[in-house]
């Protein structure tokens, strides 16, 4: 969301506003990119013939994880690991597919399982931030807008701090996602699930997915900085 309060420095366009627009475009490009790359490598069948679900269960078995289940969830690219219920959720495009893309995604979610098993600190921080981040993403901006509308500076400041929790969550997500992908690729090659070239293809899929997190985090940081600057200029 973008805000038109205070259009610029003097008569020019606010450079931060332009940067926010650029970040929004980058997010759309990253989203298009991951879908395009996934579609491409979802047509490349793995030599092992294993499906995403089979790969996930094999990785869990090899690591002695018996208290995590693998289940099918509807949708495309809705894959995720839920540490609360100890379930690896694989989407329509992943669960029954034997493509190198599906196998990479399934292994990535198992990478999160390994993080959970090993007490990976960034994952612990991200999990602890979930309640605050949910509040920040839903209440932060409305509080800022309300504070500006009513000219109540403390309310604007509270809104900015609340919104910053959602931004912090996105920033902490970056090392979590990159590490899960690294773990996934190592396991796929080490366990012989994918050949060297197939691992390279899966890496392309996971790298494209990672860029969506980078773009979203960058956009959130820029938006937070813009809100802080708008509030500071309002005080002057």
Automatic annotation (TrEMBL):
Spans traversing the lipid bilayer: 16-35, 143-169, 205-225
Keywords (A to Z) from UniProt: Membrane, Transmembrane, Transmembrane helix
Database matches in InterPro entries: Zn_peptidase_2 (IPR007395)
DNA-binding is among the record's keywords: no
Highest rank taxon of the organism: Bacteria
Protein name: Peptidase
Originating organism: Butyrivibrio proteoclasticus
